[in-house]
Hints:
single chain, 309 residues, Na+/H+ antiporter like fold, 13 helices
Amino acid sequence: MTASWPNAKMLASIVPVFLLIMLGVAIRQSRWMPDDFFPSVEKFSYFIAFPALLFTGTSRLDFHGRLVGELALATLLPTLVVAGIALLLLLPWRALPAASRSSVVQGAIRPNSYFGIAVSALFFPPQTAALVMLALALCLPAVNLLSILALSWWSGSQAHLGKVARTLATNPIILSTLAGIGASLAGLALPAPLMNTLDILGKSALALGLVSVGSGLVFSLEGLRPAALALTSALKLLLLPLVAYQVCALFGLPEAVALAAGFYCALPTAPNAYIMARQLGGDARLMASLITMQTLLAAITIPATACFR
């Protein structure tokens, strides 16, 4: 696997994404919209538009055949490896508050699906973009489970198993992804008017989600934890894609799988992680800083990590 992504084309695909993110920054900083605008947009995107996008995308994927197992191996195994490394590094780090540890775990493994879907659709051919969507479908339930477990373990108020189960069972990202996978496996075809409605909702998710990402970026040094910030970003943006490419090379996986898996693993952390940290007792301030730093660094690290192949 010696080929590398054409960096100029990759940057041309990333720039529109960053322009939408910067639009969110500009709207927030200028206070052009009322204070409740972005919370409302985030809620609509998180509970309606993004689940519609995930359902329609995953329901059209083919989950049969060898390719699914290969992609699961190339994405889930590196995710578990990096989560394990993060845990080993956190256990002796007594100076780091417990809530911050859960944010490190989230920041090390959760992908920004808005970013990934938007860039892959612009940069990759349809077949590879579909593999990126498949990687998200395979991994989102797992990374959400790991994130919720970390938050439950390290939050200020320990969550009981029942509360964790309820959180998982009501998570719209997990539910919509599993519903799409189920529809695909069952060969279920929704009526065209309903599917077209979901398609329209799904298309709105990327623009709204990216603008919302921009609105949530934090450009303040107050309360910053630079060591945790640097470690987590290195784990997510550098180590995770490196492990993914090594797994692909070790098991002799196809080039298309390696390309989609490496791109998926190189994505910056998800803005939804901030919402989850805020709701479940994590370090929301550190999470916001991680989202900001990784989103900005991704323009450099995503093309750069292609050199690992």
